[in-house]
Amino acid sequence: MLQTRVDSGLDGVVVADTVMSEVDGEAGRLVVRGHALQELVASRGFEGVAALLWEGYAEGGGDASAVASGLAAARVQAFAAVPKLLAATRGLNPVEALRVGIALLPDHETTPHHYLVCGAMPVFLAALLNAEKGLAPIAPDPTLTTAQDLLRMIRGQRAGVVFEKALDTYLATIADHGFNASTFTARVVASTHAGLISSVLAALCALKGPLHGGAPGPVLDMLDEIGDAARAEAWFDDAFAKGATLMGFGHRIYKVRDPRADVLKATVATLPATAGRLAYATAVEKGAIAALRKHKPGRRLDINVEYYTALLLEALEVPRSAFTALFAVGRTAGWCAHIFEQEKGGRIIRPQSNYVGPRPQ
Predict the structure, then answer these.
(1) The CATH number of the domain covering residues in 216-315
(2) Which tens digit of pLDDT belongs to each residue from 158-205?
């Protein structure tokens, strides 16, 4: 029997079984293929997380060294497409340009498509950021990890180990997170058997939306506007009075603190020259929570992953315009995993709608 009750935004609607990740919003817990986030990030790098996500589904799955080799070779291969990418993307922002870059990847390519796409993302992003500075693209180094090579291609030389580790932690932390909007988009497209490249492209388009992947940059804008931690509570009082959206606060699923935020906050604390900025952001966070208790007593609202993502990427000297694009570099591993899972066992996704328009007489 057709259900006619409408669940706006599919809240509470279960659409599939998955082995990829569980987001427990009440407990503030993220589990990725049987591993708690904190344990996962501490024991595996980005390549290790990708290998775990792809285990049982794709070439290299379960073998971190094989995944590292596959991604390294794919980065070298992707660099050949950089001239065409740069010629086609003048005037576009990084996410728009990445959208073009993924569209340039051919479906008939024999390289396994999960390596092809995940290898192309960092190469394309680094080339685009260098082009914005009037610099030539830097060829990838296949002896490095994704995080090491991406920072090297952006900066022109190897970054310090602590910075490389920080980026690696970030990419691993955000690799997968349940059936968020972009992941669900990837699965919808994958259910049509359109292929992995088209499915990733669709997911990237969904990530581009400011309600999904576009908030880390505005977090820094907010921190800059507040200026002084002593002004934080008053600033938030005014924001609540105006009904403004708080950047970096609140999450559709988490009713308590986003566990990814603590991982990234601890990572920021390991970086040199970030102590003052981190202390300031922590004080602002307290001001926001205090204002919330006054204006919306009983409502559960805390920081989300974007809050300390913003500080981390700022410390890594990534331009704010590229925050969403860099998020896509890490999340593509998770998109690929969900695409594999959907292709292996899922039917074409075709929900029903409840027609409320006029009917013919």
Answers:
(1) 1.10.230.10
(2) 999 999 999 999 999 999 999 999 999 999 999 999 999 999 999 999
Chain centroid to CA 344: 24
Distance from CA of residue 320 to its chain's centroid? 14
Vertex 323 angle, CA 320 and 326, to 5°: 140
Question: Domain 20-209+320-345 falls in which CATH fold?
Answer: Citrate Synthase; domain 1 (1.10.580)
Residue 54 CA from chain centroid, whole number? 17
Q: What is the dihedral of CA 99, 101, 106, 111, to 10 degrees?
A: -110
Nearest-angstrom CA–CA distance, 290 and 4: 41
Start-to-end CA distance of the chain, whole Å, equals 26
**What does the chain come to in residues?**
361
Q: How many CB atoms lie within 10 A of CB 276?
A: 8
pLDDT tens figures, 84-112 = 999 999 999 999 999 999 999 999 999 99
d(CA 204, CA 101): 11
Measured CA to CA, the distance from residue 156 to residue 139 in angstroms comes to 10
Strand order in the sheet with 29-32: 21-24, 29-32, 35-36
Beta strand ranges found along the chain (DSSP E): 21-24, 29-32, 35-36
Structure tokens at 335: 């998109």
User: Which residue(s) pair with 30 in the sheet?
Assistant: 23
Alpha-carbon distances, residue 6 vs 187, 188, 352, 354 (angstroms): 21, 19, 10, 7
Domain-wise residue ranges, the chain:
20-209+320-345, 216-315
List of residues 6+ apart from 176 with CB closer than 8 A: 20, 21, 32, 49, 53, 183, 331, 333, 334, 337, 338
Q: Where are the beta strands (DSSP E) in 134-236?
A: none
Q: What are phi and psi of 322, to 5 degrees?
A: -105, 5
Q: Are 82 and 124 in contact (CB under 8 A)?
A: yes
* 209 contact partners, CB below 8 Å, separation of at least 6: 181
Position 52, amino acid: L
Q: Catalytic residues, which ones? A: 251, 306
